[in-house]
Amino acid sequence: NIPKTQKAAVVESPDAPIHVRDDYPVKQPEELAPGECLVKMHCTGVCHTDLHARKGDWPVPPKLPLIGGHEGVGEIVAIGAHTANSPVKIGDRVGIKWLADSCLECEQCRKGLEQSCLKAKLSGYTVDGTFSQYVVSYVSHVTPIPENIESTEAASILCAGVTVYRALKYSRTTIGDWVVIPGAGGGLGHLAIQYANAMGLRVVAIDTGAEKKALCLQLGAEKWIDFKETKDLVKDIKEATGGAGPHAAVVTAASSPAYEQAIDYLREGGTLMVVGLPGTATLNASIFFTVFKSINILGSYVGNRQDAREALDVASRGKVKCHYAIKDLGALSEVYEGMEAGKVAGRIVLSMK
Ligand code: 8ID
Ligand code: ZN
Q1: Is the CB of 170 inside a 6 Å radius of any atom of ligand 1?
Q2: Which ligand approaches the C-alpha of residue 188 most closely?
Q3: Full set of structural domains in the chain with CATH
Q4: Is residue 48 within a helix (H) or strand (E), and if so which, with residue range?
Q5: Helix, coil or strand: residue 236
Q6: Which of 26, 48, 221, 325 suits 72 as a labelling partner, its CA being 20 to 30 A distant?
């Protein structure tokens, strides 16, 4: 009883309005290739990456027409014939993350850096994503969802959560260290505050507006700086961290100004985790002070299958909770408008039922 057609939000071109259709074809079970599975979606988060994709912001172009979305949770309703060694079965609740599939054989895959596999398939970018009722994904990469977490709670852990979890994990920090999070009131940032706290880190949240301030402080940030109000960001960050500056910065803002002074405010030996992805900006770091202060600059790209399980495990034990509002798929355009205007505190999750 899998329908032939479904609701889907289709982007035909970067300028055209998003077209929510109800006659989009569903790939039928007998059409699935080995290794593919069909997932009936419960819900999906909306990431700022989906907005970058929709606008064609990035130097690597998305497929067109495109169905975006890569924070989906649903149930497997079919698996392609002749699929060998599937780690999941029909009826399992699974998550669809940014990395839809990778070859599992190349050096990057063997090293657990599968997100940088040259044959990677990206949900909602190079293959259709989760803004539809049925999604074709891949048995080796869908993420089993633990029982004790709601689908709507789990959705944004699959991109926002795993991304900041991994960035913090590799930030060369330890219990009691200070981490500054520009973008703290957004989807990635508000989860980063909580993962940082769970790791024993002390958080300086940077973002703007009363609503995001209240959210960040409520989620456990010790200090707050409004980037639109500060007269001297470096001075304010240093003061907030007792004079010496933070041990790490995890930049989750979707804008390049958020990176500009990181080398100046980081503590000696500190680490800049490059996460937020403004279109074509370059990192402008003083070479002299990067060397003189022994600064580490590390790009951090979502997470591998293990990171996804770890991030979900932490959330399923109640240590991290997504702050979200639920809307329908038809609201996607207005969600993007709100996100563009910086008005979304936390996340928006779309119900797909
Ligand atoms: O794997 C990765 N590296 C990865 C994974 C997922 C998402 C990277 N991203 C990227 C997205 O593509 C996007 O560029 O991270 C960025 C943030 O995604 P998001 O959290 O989904 O976006 P959001 O909810 O809009 O939050 C961004 C926040 O940044 C603040 C905004 O106010 C907003 O709350 N912000 C901005 I724009 N400029 C800022 C600044 N200068 C700033 N905060 C502090 N300082
Ligand atoms: Zn994302």
Answers
A1: no
A2: 1
A3: 5-157+303-351 (3.90.180.10), 161-299 (3.40.50.720)
A4: helix 48-55
A5: helix
A6: 221
